[in-house]
Amino acid sequence: NQTIVEYYEAYFHPFTKFTEKEREGLRQKLLVASKMEEDYDKFSHSMEDIDAQIREAEMDKQAESRALVLPAEARRLKLLRQCRSLYALAQDEAASKGEKERALQIIENYKKELYNNSMLIKIDKQIDHIEEQKRRLKVRELSFNSYYEFALERIPQIVAQEKIQFNIRDFAAILKQFYRGGELEMTLNSDLDVNLFDEQFIVFEIDKIKDDPVLFPIVVLIIMDVFLQKMRIKKGRKALIIEEAWKAIASPTMAEYIKYLYKTVRKFHGIAGVVTQELNDVIDSPIVKEAIINNSDVKILLDQTKFKDRYEDIAAILGLTPIQRQQIFTINALNNREGRSYFKEVWICRGQYSDVYGVEEAPECYWAYTTERMEKEALKLYLAHYGTMQEAITHIEAD
């Protein structure tokens, strides 16, 4: 998460330097972390070093020049001078016992401040180093390639700074197939000709990758991201229809998304729908069964004859009344076709109102939507000859 946030920040707002407020916040954070790691032996050793500095007769000239730049360094030198004066007083035979004890007590207090001060000096140098590291991290274009390079440089810095464990080599190896020259390089690096967010009608075809353990989760995330953005930001009606829903429901990731979607989509003036040839796909899924059924105001069923033996269970799950069950089992079963064009019947329930409807389309619509292979191949020949789909359908219907 941190590398992703910093990656976009580096692209849109290239880093130059920390502000004073940022430096102070980082200084306090690093000071707490440093104290957390200090043990008694280190503390004692540091105090011995401070004692040695107090007893030095000569001041470090280089430290004096640095004090002009670093406030912490200036404070350290001032405290050392005061400690030397107090130490001289404690050694003075002319001083009273009370004066000597008072001087030694003040020295002890100053030594603790010097200890914290020496840590701050180290921390300031550490902040300068971190600042230089961040300044070197450049992102000149947005792509997975540039993120991969950014992350492999930035993650070791985070690991060192936070002193945490992270297997950078495994991370690199897992994502390498999507990086420059990898077998899946184009998956995350190709530019889209259009912005999916602005498209009014999008079809994601996942048949070929539904069993791919690498690509399927990525495509699911893309679908989720695109629709969630549209759902929350776009005005007007939005709809997500999941065809062959069993493929999606079979994936725990997608099933949880469908469950979330059904519980939230109506708040954003949107609708969600699942289409499946087998009702069992929905009612046998513990993840989505309750979410879909309880949040679906519209239910559409085709011929349910093959489920007749277990329809008591199905009716209970769908919340069907006895009248609605009778309606469903009249689908395509009545002798009501005389003098009418070919049609198929469907049961539609809207809230508490339901009925059976006949669906009849013009021949031109049939040719536009047919999935019969032989008919599709014939239509392709007409399309090649006449040039447009409208002309092809008109002539194939007339012939």
Can you describe this structure?
β4 and β5 form a beta hairpin. The chain is elongated and about 130 Å long. The chain has a three-stranded antiparallel beta sheet with strand order 3-4-5, with helices on one face. Among the domains are: 124 residues, no CATH class; 50 residues; 105 residues, Rossmann fold (3-Layer(aba) Sandwich), CATH 3.40.50. α4 crosses α5, α5 packs antiparallel against α6 and α17 packs across α19. The protein is 60% helix and 7% strand. With 399 residues, the protein is mainly α. The mean pLDDT is 80.
List strands and helices in order, with pairings.
Layout: H1 2-12, H2 20-37, H3 40-55, H4 61-67, H5 71-91, H6 97-136, H7 144-162, H8 168-175, H9 185-189, H10 215-233, E1 238-242, H11 245-249, H12 252-264, E2 270-274, H13 280-283, H14 289-294, E3 298-301, H15 311-318, H16 322-328, E4 344-350, E5 353-359, H17 363-369, H18 373-386, H19 389-398
Parallel strand pairs: 1-2
Antiparallel strand pairs: 3-4, 4-5
Distance between the termini: 62 Å
Largest sheet, described in full? 3 strands, antiparallel
Approximate helicity band = 55-70%
**Rg from C-alpha positions?**
37 Å
Number of DSSP E strands: 5
Count of runs of 4 or more consecutive helical residues: 19
Shape: elongated
Order of helices and strands: HHHHHHHHHHEHHEHHEHHEEHHH
Structure classification: mainly alpha
Strand order of the largest sheet: 3-4-5
Relative strand content:
5-15%
| Uncertain regions spanning at least 5 consecutive residues | none
